[in-house]
Amino acid sequence: MTLPQWATPERRAYLVDLFRECGGFCVYGHKPCSNPDHHYQNHIEQYIDGWKEDDRSERIDLLRLEHELIHQNSDTHGWGRRFDPVTREMFLDNRLSYYPEGTGVSGLTFRRIAKIRIPSAYTRLYVDLPKGKLSRNKRRKLRRQQIQNETEMTDRLCQMAVDDYWQHR
């Protein structure tokens, strides 16, 4: 059973204590009580409405504080972070010219391909990889051993594709 959000353990304990004191009838102890607002059920509805309003205002205050913290200074915090010019140059110098996303088989040509992403361009390139002169079993062994020749060849082909992309863009 899922409880409502306002029903914290302290609030539920308060309602139980109130019920025990009044016996489920008039909360102020009047024996023949003619005021319906004094009856237990109507009285707790006012408490519950107040608790809901308190919770709502607390959530709004927390959201407002979160927005203030995120947007208080765009130079040092949040999404508007700016690079120091020296740090930016160091980042751009050390950044890879492409990011490999995976290798697989093309559905059109049924040949091996590598999928790469070019940074700052939101572009993905699909590079055809040569089959080579090795048998399928030898290629599997190379994949298991992660021989450098195949990966170096893949890196060189991907770099050539990126260079060609930037030249003909």
Give a short synopsis of this structure:
With 169 residues, this protein is mainly alpha-helical.
Catalogue the unreliable spans. none
Report how far apart the termini are.
60 Å
Helical content (DSSP H or I, runs of 4+): 40-55%
Count of strand segments: 3
Number of helices, counting only DSSP H or I runs of 4 residues or more: 5
- Sum up the overall morphology in one term: elongated
Blueprint (SSEs and pairs):
Layout: H1 9-22, H2 40-71, H3 85-94, E1 99-105, E2 112-118, E3 123-128, H4 136-145, H5 148-167
Description:
The protein is mostly helical and 169 residues long. It has 2 domains: 9-71; 97-167, no CATH class. It has 5 helices and 3 strands, in the order H-H-H-E-E-E-H-H. A hairpin with a 4-residue loop joins strand 2 (112-118) and strand 3 (123-128). It is elongated and about 100 Å long. The relative contact order is 0.06. The model has no long low-confidence stretch (mean pLDDT 82).
Keywords, please?
169 residues, mainly alpha, three-stranded antiparallel sheet, 12% strand, elongated
